[in-house]
């Protein structure tokens, strides 16, 4: 339960991150964040502890009694908005590609995923958004230092630079909790707007 996901908002109520319930409790207890309920009311740690726990809601036990697991928290002082410039990173490539091998379409365990240069570096391929994809270890090994055409592989889709932070976009695509829905519309609407503008 303490490792389940909690949506983190900046003080303008824009989603910026997903953390664990354990970390969320710590932030609320330290006074860095407040919990948000389904009526958009905010609570400090004491106030949240006093909240009634419905039968279907998840909670954790403490020496003083049970406390409901927050699904959304708001940071008090963080007011930056999610960056439009997306940092190139391993996790962002995985998230952009939905943690799915772009050659065979499988979604193996995270430990069985790696990055593949579509055009190998030995053939002049660069390490860019447009030339790197998520692949499983097996496909990566079979493709070797060849292009997909040479290896008779087919890409699921052409790799592109994301228009929104992939980790947040991945959250939108695999939203786990109804409590997140009201706060994710800004990401979803922005992504749709970009697609309409580009004719996708």
Give the helix level as a range of percent: 25-40%
Gyration radius, rounded: 20 Å
Strand line-up across the major sheet: 2-1-7-3-4
Percentage beta strand: 15-25%
Task: Sketch the major β-sheet.
Answer: 5 strands, mixed
Return the domain count.
2
Structural description of this entry:
This protein has 200 residues and is α+β, with helices and mostly antiparallel strands. It folds into two domains: 5-81 and 176-188, no CATH class; 90-151, DNA Binding (I), subunit A (Orthogonal Bundle), CATH 1.10.30. Helix content is 29%, strand content 20%. The protein has seven helices and nine strands. A five-stranded mixed sheet has the order 2-1-7-3-4, with helices on both faces. Strands 5-6 form a two-stranded antiparallel ribbon. A two-stranded antiparallel sheet has the order 8-9. Strand 5 (59-62) and strand 6 form a beta hairpin. Helix 3 (90-96) packs parallel to helix 6 (166-173). The longest helix is centred in the last third of the chain and has 17 residues, at 181-197.
